[in-house]
């Protein structure tokens, strides 16, 4: 049985984040937070149908497709950064850390879309409310995890932190699958929660300094089963890897 998340209202977000280090917003809450309506957000969903394979999976899997681009968000200004490799230290990603992973960039038609930029600014505002106003160095990842080979693993590295300040995981869509449960844990204690995001544009927001997170594997219910997410990471002191 899938457990539904307890949604936080946007106006409660700073308080809840300070209390527990994470929060979940409904699609309606995301629309309110980002000043975008659902029609504008849904216009982005087709961009997940054109993701190249992730050729860096060390478990030998072929279940992940992705694109990756970087941005700097300062106040209301969103500036695309020169394309760069995605890099994480081994301390945060034991499976893929220490590798320079070059993924195809997010197309300009997506990155320049009004809804896309509204999402980036919205999470930056929350980050500044919690940690102080500053430029935010944002890495954006489009993921599709499929079940063509049987099992798909949204987080093959297991429960982890990303080595950033804030992480935003938007569920863009899921179809023909079971599994994909989200789990969050205190980084320095035993408390944790588990739930399954099922509604397109629902959002898990995580204070990466305080909370560890993961998503469980997905299994097929039909031949085209997949799970699409947009993951945004926010870091105050520049991009990881210099």
Describe the overall structure.
With 242 residues, the chain is of the alpha+beta class. It has a single domain, classed as Jelly Rolls, CATH 2.60.120.620. It is 18% helix and 31% strand. It is built from five helices and twelve strands. It has helices at residues 13-20, 27-34, 38-42, 108-111, 114-131, and strands at 22-25, 64-74, 77-80, 136-146, 166-175, 177-179, 182-186, 192-195, 203-207, 211-215, 218-220, 226-235. Strands 1-9-5-12-4-2-3 form a seven-stranded antiparallel β-sheet. The chain has a three-stranded antiparallel β-sheet with strand order 8-7-10, with no helix packed on it. A hairpin with a 5-residue loop joins strand 7 and strand 8. The chain is globular. 40% of the residues are buried. The model has no long low-confidence stretch (mean pLDDT 93).
Span from first to last CA?
44 Å
Taking all Cα atoms into account, the compactness measure Rg is 17 Å
How many domains in all? Answer: 1
Query: CATH homologous superfamily - what is it?
Result: q2cbj1_9rhob like domain
DSSP, total strands = 12
> What fraction strand?
25-35%
Name the average pLDDT. 93
Broad structural category: alpha+beta
The biggest beta sheet is recorded as: 7 strands, antiparallel
